[in-house]
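Narrative progress, year one. The postdoctoral researcher (J.K.) led the effort to move from monomer predictions toward full complexes, under supervision of the PI. The following entry was the first complex the group processed end to end, covering 196 residues in total.
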Amino acid sequence: MSEQLKTEIDKEIAANTILVYGKGTKSAPRCGFTLETIQFFDHFGYPFEVVDVLENMPKREVLAEMTNWPTLPKVFINGKFYGDTDILGPMAQSGELQTVLAEAFGGAPAPKTTINLR
Amino acid sequence: MIDNESLTALIQREIPDAQVQIVDRTGTMDHFNVTVRSRAFAGRTLIEQHQLVYGSLRGALKDGRVHAVELTTLVSES
């Protein structure tokens, strides 16, 4: 396992309370499941970051080994691995995810800013 | 691509009592909706249950026979 890549991943996870490793970017997702995950977190209103690893096979390999999880996207909340929306969906339904997020961010999300275009 | 029988066999190699339901989501035999029911999931968290199944599919995901999996795991009572 590449130590350099592992250090890079550790830093990214530490710097973002919600971090998604996916295919494509937040504004241009290149995979249906990555898009689904972005929409999932948009709905919660907390800030989150997406790191595109589509073309970075060595990094994907290190991520898979670190998490024992071969597929993308991969979601980390507060440094902990939470799999993908197959895990997060049921957690949201039971209310468990809301508790995890509130604790991670130290309270409820700020209300979404409404932009008036007129 | 991979057929349902081979995919089921891969999962059952890791989880012998697994009852496996497979839906080919795209008609291309590489994007699947997979439901696995097993006694092996008892006492494990959801993420550990999924890791168990993904462990069995590691090779097929790596060499591209399987592209994407939407996974549901259920604990078998009996």
